[in-house]
Amino acid sequence: MRSLFPLLLAITLAPFIQGVINRTKAFVAGRTGPPLAQPYHDLWKLIRKGAVYSQTTTWLFRAGPVVGLAATICAAALLPFGAFPAAMAFSGDLILLAYLFALARFFIVVAALDTGSSFEGMGASREVTFSALAEPALFLGIAALARQTGHLSLTSVLAAISTGTWMHAAPALSLTIGALMIVFLAENARIPVDDPATHLELTMIHEVMVLDHSGPDFAMIQYAAALKMWLLGALIIAIAFPWHTDNPWLDGIAGLTGMLALGIITGVIESSMARLRLVRVPQLLIAAIVLSGLALALVPK
Amino acid sequence: MNQLVDAVLVLLILTGFLLLGSSRLAACIRAVAIQGLLLGFLAIAIQDGQLTVVGTLLPLVSATVKGFLLPWLLFRAMREADTVREVEPFISYNLSIMIGAVGLALSLWLGQHLRLPSQPESSVLVPAALFTILAGLIVTVSRRKAITQVVGYLALENGIYAFGAAVALEMPILVELGILLDVLVGVFVMGIAIFHINRQFDHIDTGRLTSLTDRVR
Fold this sequence. Notes:
The complex is a heterodimer of chains A (301) and B (217).
Chain A: H1 5-28, H2 38-48, H3 59-76, H4 93-114, H5 118-149, H6 154-160, H7 163-187, H8 206-209, H9 215-240, H10 248-272, H11 281-298
Helix pairs in contact in A: 1-9, 1-10, 2-9, 3-4, 3-9, 4-5, 5-7, 5-11, 7-9, 7-11, 9-10
Chain B: H1 2-21, H2 25-45, H3 53-80, H4 93-113, H5 125-142, H6 146-167, H7 173-201, H8 206-209
């Protein structure tokens, strides 16, 4: 029962991080901002609405949000939190994690293309271009961790990273965190890559793909996005705050504090940076690949 | 102590990528200046607590020259020559970074296979040095402006300095000071040369200097 804890935590608290980010952005800008639970209200509002389907769309359009959410929830079952092991753990599940994200993305992209709208096609093209560069960075980063700890399952990899690992491999771990942070910002459509607040189709990447979804479908997409952000964030936090005390609840609280800090940091990054020009985004992602590649190379044999 | 050396070397590699990827001339000069400071720090950190007066002073002097004096000279040359602040590369920044990544892989491979007379302090030292040399080389050949070529030359020298730290901990003071003086004079001369090229031709675009010829066309 205890191993279901990370999954339940992710499912219940995922939208909360978005609330923290929005609140931080509002605070930096000198506004009060929406309440922390605003994402939950938004989701609830969307669920109660009806969905509108264009006559040009097929079953793919309806399958997109469902598969996207299902794949992301499966990914959530693979990731441990604090001292709590994941609901599922087997050798090689770190590859499955990356591919579950890819599966979710594939179906969202296919659903966007299914509408036949040129805007959505443009967004899909951008999303695929950038994620093709973000994925090697994620893979190399995870590979560096796997090689560092000698395990192939996320639960044991993240359990093996401790303050002792930091003592003898700080450069490699910091490079991995840097790379994963860039992947985190890119995959979740945050500011240096994509602006979640804008509704100018010309500059949007993620938002433009989901323009035609409405009601519960849109809620599923939003919720899956929040969940993905929680998962990538939890991965970073597990590396950055690897304290293992004897009390698992204490570790859990440390992890939650870390997630809160990550939300605040993301909010500060978003407030202090401008969105990069689209041609510069691949450069940032290639830099992430280089960072994680270097981390992999630094790991002693 | 090895942790610290490793961290400095990783930062050295990252500044190399910064040099390859930044589009602003000022950012490139700053990257090389940071490299100079890092190398001074590296030379002190690598001695592992057995510091001598000369062993401390020399890196400090070198860091001051490379971290402050040379960048100042370059910024001056940049101002005097009234250059556009962009780097104007022959190849795209993404391609530069990717070539750099290939260069890094090559350096890592070489670092494992190169037989050295003495075991270096850190396994990353030789790759980092070789990569800095390669990054300097890439910047020298792939950028259009004369100033970027000086910057590339400085990165090259930084790489050689780092390599020196890898192979010979105890380089004679005279040799080291001589190299420092050479670099200083070199940058001085290049600064003056850039100024004159600029005054003569109204630009410092090396791509267009190839059309210089005695033949009457």
